[in-house]
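Predict the assembly for these two chains.
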Amino acid sequence: MKGNVIIGQSGGPTAVINASLAGVIKASWKEGIRRIYGMHYGIEGLLNEDIVDIEDYIVTSQDLSLLKRTPSAFLGTCRYKLPEIEGNEAVYEKIFDILDKKNIEFFLYNGGNDSMDTIKQLSDYAAAHNKKQKFMGIPKTIDNDLPLTDHCPGYGSAAKYIATSMKELIHDNESYGASKSTVLIVEIMGRHTGWLTASAALSKDIDCSGPDLIYLPEVVFDVEKFVNKVKDLARNKKSIVIAVSEGLKVEDGRFLCELGQSSEHVDAFGHKKLSGAAAYLAGVVTAETGLKSRYVEFSSLQRCAAHLASRCDNDEAYNVGFLAAKAAFNGETGKMVSIEVQSRDPYISSYDMFDIHEVANVERNVPKNWIINDGTYVSDEYLDYARPLINGMLNPYFAGGLPVHLTMMKKRKTK
Amino acid sequence: MKGNVIIGQSGGPTAVINASLAGVIKASWKEGIRRIYGMHYGIEGLLNEDIVDIEDYIVTSQDLSLLKRTPSAFLGTCRYKLPEIEGNEAVYEKIFDILDKKNIEFFLYNGGNDSMDTIKQLSDYAAAHNKKQKFMGIPKTIDNDLPLTDHCPGYGSAAKYIATSMKELIHDNESYGASKSTVLIVEIMGRHTGWLTASAALSKDIDCSGPDLIYLPEVVFDVEKFVNKVKDLARNKKSIVIAVSEGLKVEDGRFLCELGQSSEHVDAFGHKKLSGAAAYLAGVVTAETGLKSRYVEFSSLQRCAAHLASRCDNDEAYNVGFLAAKAAFNGETGKMVSIEVQSRDPYISSYDMFDIHEVANVERNVPKNWIINDGTYVSDEYLDYARPLINGMLNPYFAGGLPVHLTMMKKRKTK
């Protein structure tokens, strides 16, 4: 008889992170695993022995269907990186004691770079100390910056939300026929990589002119060049829409949002005010061109809009969860499941695995040659890459006009 | 043979403003009207003789279906209030000359308070000068602040977007189990009335705890009391979510967003920085309580998210457009179509008309007795009022994973 399973969610939530959880549960049911545990708030919760029994909340296939449609981390998440093994053996001993106590044999962790580091450390420790536990990583990040996998579950849904909202905002911005141009600057997540900001380009089609400029953090930002581009556009266009990454930096390495900050730039409470890149640039545009400007920040909306999740993304998130658990049951450990794409149009994908040491702590950027027009747009290669990932809808279940979600607010009556 | 029709869209766009346009077109087709004109950018466009022929873009029932699913003002909009008739007769003469030249007999205008004033002025002028034209108002505003109608087309869809996004954001905010509470402040539109902000309460259900506090502009805001409420909540709750109206004012009449402004509060370009109410309050929370805080602004997203439009709202927007045109064809003038509700559960509504003089320039607030808990929440009366308005989905047409819209980017090949 196999031991029990534990699954944890880690890092920023996504619209489909719970689909991977559903995949792990499904695989465990098929395998006849006795108990499926969840870490309440990731590895941080595990260290506090804050562990839930999945069976208290999820029993039927209907529960799984609803879980797949629930945004944010059902189990709760954390931002916690395990310390180096050397000198911190007590932390690791504690974790393995907790696992042994609950007869846990299979450890699944769903997250981005830092979470894959957790799998690396734990599987390294297990190998060195001859532990029975198997450790498998399940990729997840809206940032799409994990290496070796073609793309990351979570990215397609965030990109679909961004592209849809861009279409709607561009139409909105075009609806005013005022004499002066109106500049709308939209701020998109991605502190280090521009994958999410690039997805704004997907809005361009026969029914939408798309953003006029797109700025990724992979390219050093030049404020003066930017102002000149806006002035050029304003000669022929009433509505100007610009997508910018929150992570834009100027030559000297400072973030754009730091440029507006000065020692006087504090509020009534002496609290330093942080405005974002878009807010800063909207101010620059009006000051330098006299044009009307405003900004929109997609903020956390772009990572939790399950009502607009991509079907492709949701299916793949479910599948990587399922396959990671299945691989662990088959004896695999210290690996991350990845997605391979054979054909983008039609879209044909499959799954593989990589040694976790090749994945952990490596960040993948948007390729330089996909960034065109003097760093102000993305190429057709990007569009071909991203288009299949936003395809299809997993429609929410609605009640009273609103999407229904599965939460830990109420336990099921257990047997 | 009846004369021609002209329709204009005015004020801020909504997710369903084009459904009313579709209703006017449908009624005109049924009536056998020869030509249907559109004002390009509302009355401002009309004054510039910027008029489009609807037939160039919309010919089939399929076009109408797509139009109903298109956010923002298809014809373009304006914020323009006609001057008083006395002393400005030339403006009115010009408008009637343009209408006469195109043999326009029926004038439909779709908008909020200012737009109803346009209908009032034009119908008054027509009556005084014995003009043949009929003028009918079609209500539209996400703010829901028009009087006499039970509610305004546009409101239900914005409320559905807000309630859905609140559910998703609340789950997102709950997903971190950090030791300190996290305070999320969400800013919602509504400069003068709290109808939109109130809709955040709709998110509360068996699967969502809802916002903890809701602040409407109908009540004077007290910063100190607010801080104490947050401190109280933080004693028992990890995730605190607060909905605030952009129009919150303190005792002395200043907007919250003005409180953080000082002469030093300028950016590198000497441009005064305007932060919103939520940004200001997030700063206050961290400074006064030491809690982690962040803010989200729904910004224009809440008025253009057609992908999440309410079916009830879309149908009603279509119907008021249809009925306003039909009333004009029957000889009515100087009126606005309104919605009456016989029963809220089950929802049974009908339509009526009111003299435009009773409507124009009157603003309706959220009733004081619907605002409870010392001005920090809304009552069940509000929930009963709003629930039916967000019901049902008008699913977008999707292509390539994104909603398809009808736009003026390309003319149809006309016969």
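The longest strand of chain A covers residues 335-344. Residues 262-273 of chain A have pLDDT under 50 and may be disordered.
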